[in-house]
Write a structure and sequence with these properties.
Elements: E1 36-37, E2 40-41, H1 42-57
Antiparallel strand pairs: 1-2
Amino acid sequence: MDCPNCGKWNPDDKTVCWRCQTVLPKPQPKKKRAANFLGLPMWMWVALVLFFVMTTFGQCMLVAPPGA
């Protein structure tokens, strides 16, 4: 982090600048980004795959076996 007063670099764990003793602003926590793939959230891809699998292969389980 750079000092807002003198511009000197300071490690993130410091609370005052080592050069000019100016109080440093507290670092902001980084926000987590949602996992995306091709512009859609991962839960949407999981839902699409499950829908595809259930509509394609789910009907095979509903057919009665021969001679039943």
